[in-house]
Design goal:
- Among the domains are: 191 residues, Spore Coat Polysaccharide Biosynthesis Protein SpsA, Chain A; 112 residues, 3-Layer(aba) Sandwich (Rossmann fold); 127 residues, no CATH class.
- Helix 12 packs antiparallel against helix 13.
- Strand 15 and strand 16 form a beta hairpin.
- It has 664 residues and is an alpha/beta fold.
- It has 21 helices and 18 strands.
C-alpha cells in the first residue's frame, strides 16, 4: 500500500463529503486506503460515509477522543508506506497525492511534508509554512511584531514570511490540516502525543521528526483548499485556552530550565492578552450598536425634556433631576430591550423588527407608567415624543450605517449578489434548483461552460471557462459557484487565486445537496443546503425561550401557595422552579422516550441527537396530547415538529395543557 489517508471528523458532514469526493478523484491510479475516524458526531456524518463512500474504512467512536487519539487509532490499523493526516474541511487537487508521493520518493531525508494551502476566498494561508515556537518567536507572534514585519527573517519566524510561498522550502513545522508522513519515521519517533487533545500535536510531531534527523518540507508543487474556521472557532475563549494550554504542554515536554520557564511565562502572558482581546472584541461586536442607540436616545430625550419644559410649561427647570437618572435610563432599557427580544439586533438592518420592538417598548412603558409613584411620572407627552424620536432617529441611524457600508439607501432590501455558475448546462440547472429549494436569494446572471458553448443551445450560457475573468468584470459578479463534476479541483483553485479574494466562491460536489464555501480563513464555512432549518436554533428563539422560562418561574413562585394544590408532586414542582432559574431545565423540552410503557417501539429517522440542543424539559410536546397512546416514531416526529416550527406560544400551550405535570 502506497498511501494511508486519515481524516478525523467532528460534526462537519457536508465538508467531509466534499473532502472525500476530492480524495477519491486524487486517488485514481494509486494504491490508497482511506480512513475516517468520527469522534461521535451528531450530524449524520457516519451514515453519510457508509452510504456514499463504501470504500472508506470507518471508525465510529462513541465519544470525542480528541485529534491525536483518533489519528492514532487509524494509524495503527493502516498499512501504507506513507500516512497522510488530512482535515475534513479541505479539498485536494487531482494531482496532489501523486505529486507529493513523487517528492517524498525523490527525497529520502524528508520525514514529513506539507503543501501550499489557500482559504475559501483563494487567499494563501501563511500557516502553510511555520517555524518552531521558541520563546522569541512566541514573543514576536504574541505582541504583533510578526504582523508588523511580515517579511522579516527575525520577527516573523512563526510563519516564515521571508520564504517565497511559490517555492519549495525546508521548514520546521507542518500544518495539521495536511501532514504527509513517512511510515518508517513514525515507527522510529512514535505516533501523535495523546496528551494533546486538540492543537499543538502537529508542532510536537514536527519537532520530533527534526530531532530524529529528518527534514520537514513545505511543498509548493500542489495546492489544497482549507476552509478553516469550520473546525476551529477562533473567536472564542475556549479556543484561546485550548490552544495555549497545548503550547504549555509542548514547552514542558521539550524545554527545560530557564528556557522552559521563560517560554511558559510568555505563553501565560499570551493567554491573558488574547483572552482580554477576545473578550473586548466580542463585547464590542455585540454591544457597539446598542450602545450607540442608547447614546442617541439619551441625547434626544435630554433635548425633548428641555423643549417640552420650555414650550409647554414655560419653565426650563420644570422636570425633577430624577428624570435624568431614573426615567431616561428606564425608557432606554425598555425600548432597546424590546428591540433585542424581537430580534432587532440579530438583523441590524431589518427596519420592521426595529420599529416593532420600539412600538412594543412604548406599549410596555405606557403600562409601567401607571404603576410609578407620582413623583416619577413626567407627562405622557414625553413618552410619546420619545417614542417618535426613537423610531425616527434609530431608523435614520440604520439607514446612514447601511449607506456608509453599501453605498445605497435600500435598507433591508440590499441588492442580491450577482451569481454565476461554472459547469455544464445540466449541472447548472441542478444547482439552480438546489438554490431555489434552499431559498437562497441570489441574482442568477448565467452559466460559464467548462467547454466552448454553443450559443444556439442555451442563451443562459455566457462564455467558456477561459473567459471567466471577463464575465466577472462585465457583469459585476459577486459570487461564483463551481460544479466539481465538470471543473477539476486544480482549475477551481487556479481561478480562485487568479480572481482574488474580492469574490465569494462556492463548490457543489457532484450528486450532493450542499453547496459549500467560505469567504475567510477566520469564519466558519458557508453552506447552502436543502436540509431542514429549525426555528428553535435561531438566536431569537433561544433567547425568547429562556426569557419565557424565567417569567413563568417567577410567576409560579409568586403564586406557589395556590398552585401547590393544583399540581402533582408539590416538592418536585418547587425544585423545578429553582432548576429553571439556574438554567438546568426548561419548562418544555424534547420527549426522549414515550411516557407510557408497553408501547410498540421503532427506529425514528429523526432522533433527539440530530435536533438542535436545548435544556432538558419538565414537560414535552406529548403533554399537549394527554391521554394519547404514542409510539416512539410518533414521539420523535412531535419532537421534530416542535423544533422546526417553534415559537413561544407553543411552549405556553404545552404548559397550559400539561399544568398538573409541572412537578414531574
Amino acid at each position: 500500500m502506497q498511501l494511508s489517508i486519515i481524516i478525523v471528523n467532528y460534526n462537519v458532514q457536508y465538508f467531509l463529503e466534499q473532502c472525500l469526493l476530492s480524495v477519491r478523484q486524487a486517488s485514481a491510479g494509486l494504491e490508497v486506503e482511506t480512513f475516517v475516524v468520527d469522534n461521535n458526531s451528531v450530524d449524520n456524518s457516519v451514515a453519510m460515509v457508509r452510504e456514499k463512500f463504501p470504500e472508506v474504512k470507518l471508525i465510529a467512536n462513541q465519544q470525542n477522543t480528541g485529534f491525536a487519539v483518533a489519528n492514532n487509532q487509524a494509524i495503527r490499523q493502516s498499512t501504507g508506506k506513507y500516512v497522510l493526516l488530512l482535515n475534513p474541511d479541505t479539498v485536494v487537487r487531482e494531482d496532489t497525492f501523486k505529486n507529493c508521493l513523487d517528492f517524498m520518493e525523490a527525497h529520502p531525508e524528508a520525514g514529513g511534508l506539507g503543501v501550499k494551502m489557500i482559504d475559501g476566498s483563494g487567499k494563501f494561508l501563511p500557516e502553510s509554512k511555520r517555524g518552531f515556537p521558541s520563546p522569541f518567536v512566541a514573543f514576536c507572534k504574541t505582541f504583533g511584531l510578526s504582523t508588523l514585519f511580515p517579511k522579516s527573517k527575525i520577527f516573523n519566524r512563526y510563519h516564515l514570511g521571508y520564504l517565497d510561498k511559490d517555492e519549495t522550502h525546508e521548514v520546521d513545522v507542518l500544518a495539521g490540516a495536511f501532514m504527509l508522513l513517512r511510515r518508517s519515521v513514525l515507527d522510529k519517533i512514535g505516533l501523535l502525543d495523546e496528551a494533546f487533545f486538540m492543537y499543538g500535536e502537529d508542532i510536537d510531531l514536527s519537532y520530533r521528526i527534526v530531532q530524529a534527523g529528518y527534514k520537514n518540507y513545505y511543498f509548493a508543487g500542489t495546492t489544497i483548499i482549507h476552509y478553516k474556521g469550520e473546525s476551529t472557532k477562533k473567536g472564542s475563549l475556549n479556543y484561546v485556552r485550548t490552544f495555549y494550554n497545548a503550547m504549555i504542554i509542548f514547552a514542558r515536554k521539550h524545554f527545560s530550565g530557564r528556557q522552559a520557564r521563560l517560554y511558559i511565562a510568555m505563553i501565560y502572558g499570551a493567554i491573558y492578552l488574547r483572552a482580554g482581546m477576545t473578550l473586548l472584541t466580542n463585547f464590542f461586536k455585540k454591544s457597539a450598536l446598542p450602545l450607540l442607540d442608547a447614546a442617541l436616545l439619551f441625547g434626544g430625550l435630554i433635548g425633548l425634556k428641555y423643549f417640552w419644559a420650555r414650550y409647554y410649561y414655560d419653565d426650563p427647570g420644570y422636570y425633577d433631576p430624577t428624570f435624568v437618572w431614573f426615567n431616561i435610563p428606564l425608557y432606554i432599557v425598555v425600548w432597546l430591550g424590546s428591540v433585542f427580544f424581537t430580534g432587532g439586533y440579530d438583523e441590524r438592518y431589518n427596519l420592521r423588527r426595529l420599529v416593532r420592538g420600539l412600538v412594543i417598548g412604548t406599549v410596555v412603558l405606557s403600562a409601567i407608567y401607571g404603576y410609578l409613584p407620582l413623583e416619577l411620572r413626567p407627562s405622557r407627552a414625553i413618552v410619546l415624543l420619545g417614542a417618535v424620536w426613537a423610531v425616527t432617529s434609530l431608523v435614520t441611524f440604520r439607514t446612514f450605517i447601511h449607506f456608509f457600508r453599501t453605498g445605497n439607501l435600500a435598507v433591508g432590501r440590499s441588492r442580491p449578489d450577482n451569481l454565476i455558475i461554472v459547469g455544464s448546462e445540466a449541472e447548472s440547472e441542478r444547482v439552480r434548483n438546489l438554490l431555489g429549494q434552499a431559498q437562497v436569494r441570489k441574482n442568477y446572471i448565467g452559466t460559464v461552460s467548462p467547454n466552448h458553448p454553443s450559443p444556439v443551445t442555451n442563451h443562459q450560457v455566457l462564455a467558456s471557462l477561459t473567459r471567466l475573468d471577463e464575465v466577472v468584470q462585465i457583469f459585476k459578479i459577486d459570487e461564483v459557484i463551481f460544479c466539481s463534476r465538470d471543473v477539476s479541483s486544480e482549475e477551481i483553485m487556479q481561478w480562485m487565486t487568479r480572481l482574488g479574494p474580492g469574490l465569494d466562491y462556492k463548490i457543489v460536489p457532484k450528486e450532493s445537496i450542499s453547496i459549500i464555501g467560505s469567504s475567510s480563513k477566520d469564519t466558519a464555512g458557508e453552506l447552502y443546503t436543502i436540509e431542514i432549518r429549525f426555528n428553535i436554533a435561531s438566536p431569537m428563539a433561544q433567547r425568547n425561550k429562556r426569557v419565557l422560562d424565567l417569567l413563568l418561574a417567577v410567576g409560579f413562585l409568586l403564586l406557589a401557595v395556590g398552585l401547590l394544590f393544583l399540581v402533582k408532586n408539590r416538592g418536585d414542582f418547587l425544585k423545578n422552579i429553582f432548576k429553571v432559574f439556574l438554567g438546568k431545565k426548561s419548562w418544555v423540552g424534547y420527549a426522549s422516550h414515550p411516557i407510557r410503557p408497553g408501547q410498540p417501539g421503532g427506529q425514528s429517522p429523526i432522533t433527539i441527537h440530530q435536533l438542535p440542543n436545548i435544556r432538558p424539559g419538565v414537560l414535552t410536546p406529548l403533554d399537549a396530547l394527554p391521554g394519547r397512546q404514542l409510539d416512539e416514531p410518533t414521539t420523535q416526529r412531535l419532537n421534530f415538529l416542535y423544533a422546526k416550527d417553534y415559537d413561544v406560544w407553543r411552549d405556553l400551550e404545552i404548559v397550559w395543557k400539561g399544568f398538573r405535570e409541572l412537578g414531574r
